Amino acid sequence: RDAKLGKLKELITEKIAKPINPGAEPGQAGNKKVIVFTAFADTAAYLHRELEQWLKTEFGLYSALVTGTGINKTNMPGCKADLNTILTHFSPLSKKRNEIFPEEPNAIDVMICTDCISEGQNLQDCDYLVNYDIHWNPVRIIQHFGRIDRIGSVNEKIQLVNFFPSMELDSFID
């Protein structure tokens, strides 16, 4: 019944089926990394709950939830749920994971998060970012894009997707 969630699943499915860049890690067929930003921790938790098993079952991908509430989660085996460990496993090249976890074969491919990682994080292994809702401050949107649009990226192209409120919302709120 959630058309917006359905559209997000469509976008993720298309991204995984047709990667826009080759995989950055050896043996990787294509870059499958996706960041989904939302302004609200409750929305992030909902998205993670709805997507986590679907991503694992349909695509064999590990995912993570990162919010400023301290309730981070991941379904990657052996991965601690603290911020730095999740980000290192999500962006292994930019975070130099091979120096920290040299034997780890797995990676997190989809991260659902709030603005707690909108500044100062190098996540340029990722090439696809979704703003699930539009923050009231446009600088935040630019900061989100800045997580993946960075010097040192191995990606030739990046894709940025914004979900805007429906036009009916204005009439509903009035």
Your description of this structure?
The protein is an alpha/beta fold and 174 residues long. It has six helices and six strands, in the order αβαββααββαβα. It is 36% helix and 14% strand. Strands 3-2-4-1-5-6 form a six-stranded mixed sheet, with helices on both faces. A hairpin with a 6-residue loop joins strand 2 and strand 3. The radius of gyration is 16 Å and the shape is globular.
Short description:
This protein is an alpha/beta fold and 174 residues long.
What is the secondary structure topology, with strand pairs?
Elements: H1 3-17, E1 34-37, H2 41-59, E2 62-66, E3 73-74, H3 83-90, H4 97-100, E4 108-113, E5 128-131, H5 138-146, E6 159-162, H6 167-173
Parallel strand pairs: 1-4, 1-5, 2-4, 5-6
Antiparallel strand pairs: 2-3
Keywords:
36% helix, 6-stranded mixed β-sheet, globular, alpha/beta, 6 strands, 174 residues, single chain, 6 helices
Helicity range: 25-40%
Helices and strands, in N-to-C order? HEHEEHHEEHEH
Secondary structural class:
alpha/beta
Q: Helix count?
A: 6
Q: Uncertain spans, ≥5 residues at pLDDT below 50?
A: none
The spatial strand order of the largest sheet comes to 3-2-4-1-5-6
